[in-house]
Specification:
Elements (H helix, E strand, L loop, with lengths): L11 E4 L14 H12 L5 E5 L2 E5 L1 H17 L7 E5 L4 H13 L2 E5 L5 H11 L3 E4 L2 H11 L7 E4 L11 E2 H14 L3 H7 L6 E6 L9 E5 H11 L11 E3 L6 H12 L4 E3 L6 H8 L3 E4 L1 H18 L1 H22 L6 H21 L6 E4 L6 H9 L4 E6 L6 E4 L12 E2 L4 E4 L4 E5 L6 E2 L3 H6 L7 E9 L5 E6 L4 E2 L5 E2 L1 H9 L4 E7 L7 E6 L1 H11 L6 H6 L1 H14 L11 E4 L19 H7 L1 H9 L2
Parallel strand pairs: 2-12, 4-5, 4-6, 6-7, 7-8, 11-12, 11-13, 13-14, 14-15, 26-27
Antiparallel strand pairs: 1-18, 2-3, 9-10, 10-20, 15-16, 16-17, 18-19, 19-21, 21-22, 23-24, 25-26
């Protein structure tokens, strides 16, 4: 760890490879990235997607040609450098092609989550000044048709799939490409000039934060921000063209999008999952070597495996539980660089045949890089998957940092941390515990919000992440909570809810948990049970309970959850322990507004939506 005498003693700071420049042959802009990749690798299967039950492919040459046609098509529509085009669609090759076309035209693209409500879509389109809107299909248009009436700056809608749409409304992507091809035939050098005019310091994309604590803010990321982060975040990974990634997280999120650029830069054969529901099927078909996901995905996989074992019952359930214990025990010595006892290795080999091999098969059986971010991965889930032969590397970052700040990697990994800062990034801890970062990936600022931009930078130019953390003696960063999510009880005690929620979610009977109690006497919890697991429990105990409503009202189930909470949180300080809780019959969802598209809890929304429930908790004697 590095200490800097010029800074106050209240700071601790760490960095990796500060000042490493890009190599001469590395791209400076996203346009260069797409061009170089197509020229260097020339894959017949650069982009792969499934339609009508069949996997189809787009070659590197076609990817470049189509992106250049889209760029020329945007130019024909009157868009010029710095103009805005929004993309509101699920993951698909068309999403990547539209993005590449915007970059080659000098157009700033604005990703929009498909799960956002009408008010948020309206705000983003109007605040950004979007002139062209890429939409997935007629259904997407129908959903926001009323919103578009209030978006006067939107001049053209381009449908990825225009089938069934009113011919008077859309321009299909195919038509935009044909329009671009015609203008290119008239001016062969147009696309080259457009792409060459891009500077590394130009804004490439405007990504609106999900607004967990208020109004969305448009994060301005330059070509240099993104390119530097793509290269530096991938520096410790041995990525090769033979790798096969499956794209699952929304491309609207900078984490997945930067991963997409990393795949393209390294000449991989990229596959797009059909939908979240189809991910298990697609994993089996694609058999990826690289998988990037948020912790919730791994939690759900484990919960499903646990439920299957519980429903089978008898010896198989006991074998599963035994194997999970062995996985934890096996992973821990590796984390501590200790010798694994022979007896444990033998047990692990047996558990591998009976349980772990099936878990690996779910992911396709050939994963070698499994990376997660966006939220905290529990130590328990990490140890279970690592012990089962699926090593998850947890990283940390924000949209504002393009996104990666730190990451565990094949050379440096430590349990309970988010790794060391990636190359060229510096991290320090302020006096109040807030993590501050500096590096080439840090955003230009918030669009149209100079005051908000000033607020997130220190006087000496460091970005305030809003997260609380610490740096250990070896330079590993640990996140303890969100600064804005810390709450204080009426007794003056500060509580970090994320850690406590993670402990409660370790129960097989709990699906979701949210801690409440700001300015109240004690912390309480809103809990969504795992109803499938409760049904298995009720059957085993011969309880006549089946519906979510009945489970939430049952005193026996309430007693079960109370025992689970008490056992899992026994190591907490007395003031941190959950005194009361309420069971809720409906999940917190993205569609319901309680979660962001990357499955983070929106505490402000939950506080408002469940105000009556929370008030009743504290009104009870």
């Amino acid at each position: 760890m590095e200490s800097v005498a010029a800074e106050p003693k209240s700071f601790t700071r760490v960095s990796q490879g500060r000042g490493t420049p890009l190599l001469p042959d590395e791209p400076r802009t996203l346009t260069e990235l797409f061009r170089q990749a197509a020229g260097k690798f020339d894959r017949p299967d650069a982009l792969n997607y499934k339609r009508e039950g069949e996997w189809r492919k787009i070659s590197s040459a076609d990817m470049l040609r189509r992106a250049e046609n889209i760029a020329a098509g945007l130019y024909a529509l009157g868009l010029r450098k710095g103009d805005k085009a929004a993309i509101l669609a699920g993951n698909s090759p068309e999403w990547t092609l539209a993005d590449a076309g915007c970059q080659m035209a000098g157009v700033v693209d604005v990703p929009v989550y498909t799960t956002l409500g009408g008010a948020s879509v309206r705000y983003i389109l109007n605040d950004s000044g979007t002139r062209v809107l890429f939409l997935e299909n007629k259904a997407a248009h129908d959903r926001i048709a009323d919103v578009l009436l209030d978006c006067s700056r939107v001049e053209t809608i381009v449908f990825f799939d225009a089938s069934g749409a009113d011919p008077a409304i859309p321009l299909s992507l195919a038509e935009l490409e044909r329009k671009g091809e015609r203008i290119r035939n008239e001016d062969a050098g147009l696309v080259g000039r457009l792409g060459d005019s891009a500077e590394a310091s130009d804004v490439a994309t405007l990504i609106y934060t999900s607004g967990t604590t208020g109004e969305p803010k448009g994060v301005m990321l330059t070509h240099a921000n993104i390119i530097s982060n793509v290269i530096d975040a991938g520096e410790k990974y041995s990525l090769v063209p033979e790798d096969v990634p499956l794209s699952v997280l929304p491309l609207s999120h900078v984490f997945e999008r930067s991963a997409m650029y990393l795949y393209i830069l390294n000449g991989m054969s990229i596959h797009y999952a059909e939908s979240i529901d189809k991910v298990p099927e697609n994993l089996g078909e694609v058999r990826p070597t690289i998988f990037i996901g948020v912790p919730r995905i791994f939690e759900k996989v484990y919960a499903r495996a646990k439920l299957n074992a519980a429903q089978t019952g008898g010896a198989k359930e006991k074998i599963f539980e035994w194997a999970i214990d062995i996985a934890r025990d096996f992973a821990m010595p590796s984390e501590k660089r200790e010798r694994i006892p022979t007896s444990l290795s033998i047990k692990h080999a047996v558990a591998d045949k009976l349980v772990y091999s099936k878990l690996r098969k779910f992911f396709g059986g050939r994963l070698r890089s499994c990376i997660t971010g966006g939220a905290a991965l529990s130590d328990d889930i990490y140890l279970i998957f690592t012990g089962a032969g699926i090593t998850i590397k947890q990283g940390y970052g924000l949209t504002e940092t393009s996104p990666v700040i730190s990451s565990n990697n094949p050379f440096d990994t430590r349990l309970g941390t988010v790794g060391k800062p990636i190359r060229n990034v510096e991290v320090r801890i302020a006096a109040d515990g807030e993590i501050e970062a500096k590096g080439p990936g840090v955003m230009l600022g918030y669009y149209n919000k100079p005051e908000a931009t000033r607020d997130v930078f220190t006087d000496d130019g460091w970005f305030r992440t809003g997260d609380i953390g610490e740096i250990d003696a070896d330079g590993f960063l640990k996140i303890t909570d969100r600064k804005k999510e810390l709450f204080k009880t009426s007794g003056g005690k500060y509580i970090a809810p994320t850690h406590i929620e993670g402990l409660i979610r370790a129960s097989r009977f709990v699906n979701q948990a949210v801690l409440v109690g700001n300015e109240r006497k004690f912390p309480a919890a809103l809990i969504v049970p795992n109803f499938e697991m409760l049904r298995s429990y009720a059957s085993h105990k011969r309880l006549n309970i089946d519906s979510p409503v009945d489970f939430c009202r049952s005193e026996k189930i309430g007693d079960l959850i109370r025992r689970q909470i008490d056992d899992l949180t026994k190591g907490l300080a007395q003031y941190e322990k959950v005194k009361k809780f309420v069971l809720l019959e409906n999940d917190f969802t993205v569609e319901g507004g309680e979660m962001t598209p990357t499955l983070k809890i929106k505490r402000r929304v939950i506080d408002e939506k469940y105000r009556d429930v929370i008030d009743r908790i504290y009104a009870e004697k």
